[in-house]
Write a structure and sequence with these properties.
- The chain is an alpha+beta fold.
- The protein folds into 2 domains: 168 residues; 141 residues, no CATH class.
- The protein is 53% helix and 13% strand.
- β1 and β2 form a beta hairpin.
- α5 packs antiparallel against α8 and α9 packs across α11.
- The protein is elongated, with a radius of gyration of 25 Å.
- The two termini are 28 Å apart.
- 24% of the residues are buried.
Length: 369
């Protein structure tokens, strides 16, 4: 019975592996690049991250926005990124008259625009689109999601196939026989390092499913909170008519209020609503703690800049807190450099799995012939 079960698992492992091999290779390779996205981008494009000279005082956010609106005909501001580090630039994402997103880097001390590029042509934006959607939009996202689900099965089935019939043979399964034939080394490399990277790769694939499928995310909320109903990420704007206020400190006022509401040290992100109904969302990430992506939220009236609601991170449900951990776990940034290095290594190894697996299948096929 056990032998038949393992044989059936082996067949599923083989055919699912062959069917998803190309997608797994692409996902693993792009994922390994994205692990050190910020560090690589900062090294290649330092003008988007750091100012040349730290000044005595900063210009208001509205001053910087006004320059973009006048010089680059930016019609709509979508996101504003500010940082506690005094050497950092302000990053602003806005849409021009053709409704194309433009990404800007601005010196907060002088208001000088240091760099600009179309958002869709940024290298890591393209890599992320490949990683999540294969540059195919919603259809690609479904393909990637299904492949991620298959990969999770491949990991579990791989452990079942790896496990020796007799416990005394376990020691041999824990090492690669580098002195053996190519066929033996290839099999050992595939299975042995697959065992060592199993847990990390499983966490990466499961957190990837959370990005791909609503039902998986609902399942997390149900297990954590006992309900699939998630707290709304949006708050309706109370002011229905735009009074067209001539407020020269609109964005700065929102920034100052959010900074005051949450007194800890952190980076602040202002997100303008994409529709005409909802309010402005401001996230303040707490950089005083070691785990990243722990942000409190505040909502502001998009016409009057008045605070509507504040949601400290401590008030979030367990499901919401798990969701916040999803990104740092998936990218390996949860404990900084050590976990990033681990994520990079296992992602590079995952990219070899379709190749070594194909060679194992090819070797067995030739042997049968």
């Amino acid at each position: 019975m056990k032998k038949k079960f393992k044989k059936n698992i082996g067949k599923l492992h083989l055919w699912f592996g062959l069917g998803s091999s190309l997608i797994v290779f692409i996902a693993a390779l792009t994922g390994s690049i994205l692990v050190f996205e910020k560090e690589i981008d900062k090294a290649i494009n330092p003008e988007y991250y750091n100012v040349s000279t730290i000044g005595n005082s900063k210009k208001t956010i509205d001053y910087c926005v006004d320059i973009l609106q006048k010089k680059y005909a930016i019609k709509k501001i979508t996101r504003i990124y500010t940082f506690n580090d005094p050497s950092r630039t302000i990053q602003i994402l806005g849409k021009d008259s053709d409704k194309k997103a433009q990404f800007f880097s601005i010196d907060p001390y002088t208001g000088k625009i240091l760099a600009t590029t179309p958002q869709e042509s940024r290298f890591f934006v393209v890599v992320l689109s490949i990683h999540r959607q294969l540059l195919m939009g919603d259809a690609g996202e479904i393909i990637m999601g299904i492949s991620c689900l298959i990969f999770a099965f491949m990991l579990i089935s791989g452990i079942i196939l790896w496990w020796p019939k007799k416990i005394k043979n376990l020691k041999n399964r824990l090492k690669v026989k580098w002195s053996g034939s190519f066929k033996r080394v290839n099999w050992d490399f595939h299975s042995t390092f697959g065992f060592y990277s199993f847990l990390v790769l499983l966490l990466i694939s499961l957190t990837g499913l959370s990005f791909a499928f609503t039902w998986f995310q609902n399942g997390i909320y149900f297990l954590a909170d006992g309900t699939t109903k998630k707290p709304s990420a949006k708050v309706e704007n109370p002011t229905k008519i735009d009074p067209k206020l001539n407020n020269t400190a609109f964005y700065q006022s929102i920034y100052n209020k959010a900074d005051s509401i949450f007194p800890y040290t952190g980076n602040i992100q202002i997100r303008m609503p994409a529709d005409t109904i909802n309010s402005i969302l401001v996230l303040k990430e707490n950089i005083e703690i070691s785990i990243p992506n722990q942000s409190s939220a505040a909502y502001f009236d998009k016409y009057t800049a008045e605070n509507i609601e504040a949601r400290p991170y401590e008030s979030f449900s367990t499901g919401d807190k798990i969701k916040r951990l999803n990104y740092p776990i998936h990218t390996g940034s949860i404990y900084g450099l050590p976990t990033k290095i681990i994520a990079l290594l296992v992602c590079l190894f995952a990219a070899t799995l379709p190749i070594t697996g194909f060679l194992i299948w090819l070797g067995r096929k030739k042997k049968k012939q």
